[in-house]
Write a structure and sequence with these properties.
Blueprint (H helix, E strand, L loop, with lengths): L4 E6 L4 E3 L2 H13 L3 E6 L2 E6 L4 E4 L2 E12 L6 E2 L2 E2 L2
Parallel strand pairs: 2-7
Antiparallel strand pairs: 1-2, 1-6, 3-4, 4-5, 5-6, 7-8
This protein binds ligand V3L.
């Protein structure tokens, strides 16, 4: 985002950055003070809970990951599943 923050979801041993569009959608919801935000990942609806800081696939509570808002410059695994070395 313009102020240097991005949104991340948890992988096995590190954090993945959301794709830019989704990160911006989450940021917009966050700035509005929304409690949650609905996103689409590969055709599936996920709910980003901005109070619990988790994302969960709709109606599949086992598919739950932590999320965080952090600087765009932190070490990360990649973006939306695309690895960076
Ligand atoms: N953006 C992109 N892909 C996602 C997202 C998202 N917000 N949420 C889930 N997936 P689940 P390591 C992740 C993918 O939570 O080795 C990473 O992007 C998710 O991809 O059970 O553990 C990597 O591609 C997973 O493939 O609904 O760090 C991959 O895991 C699938 O949706 C491995 O990462 C099911 O996730």
């Amino acid at each position: 985002t313009e102020d240097g923050f991005q949104w991340y979801y948890e992988g096995r041993n590190g954090w993945w950055q959301y794709d830019d569009r989704t990160s911006q959608d989450i940021e917009d919801a966050f700035k509005k003070g929304d409690k949650s935000c609905t996103i689409l990942v590969a055709g599936y609806v996920y709910i980003v809970d901005l109070e619990q800081l988790v994302q969960q696939r709709q109606n599949e509570p086992t598919r739950c990951r932590r999320v965080k808002r952090d600087l765009a410059t932190i070490p990360k695994k990649g973006v939306a599943g695309l690895r960076i070395e």
